[in-house]
Amino acid sequence: MRSRSTEASPRPSPDAFGRPASSRRSTRFDVFVSFDTDHDKELCDRILAQSRMPGSGFRVMGASSRSTATEATQETTRRQIAKADQVIVICGEHTDASVGVFNELRAAQGEEKPYIMLWGRREVMCCKPQGARTTEGMFSWTRQILQDQLALNLRKAQEHEKTTAVARRCALLKGRPMDAEAQPPREP
User: If we measure between CA atoms, which residue out of 44, 28, 46 comes closest to residue 36?
Assistant: First the structure.
């Protein structure tokens, strides 16, 4: 009969990068949350609650607002998106008809901010917002999937920045500045 002290303890499951749970960095991302303000306010409340949990890995520093009609509000939203590390788009039943989510997604794409689209409601068919690329999918909304996707998006953005910096350096060594056409392609 084995004693409890000699039994193997269960290993923590690895994350998306193969690291054990004990070695994960405690990086916190600043995110902007885009959602349909007319139909999905409780989903935003849910993600706010998730962000406050220990080990969530992200902090909500801005979210959609009902009053997107004024130019001042749109500019404030653009600034919040520019300051965020990433954008979380919560997709619901009517997201495809939301002008606010469309404008926020367009601003995120214009700022080249990584974003993740979450399937907001399990019991109904959710729609991607207008302006989303056809190659992009929605992810199931679980704590682990959200954390892994945020980390993966940040890693891709950092790799893109490094590639762009190397291309600029090579262009400067050749004696010519790098133009927009010579930049390496951005992953979708």
Answer: 44
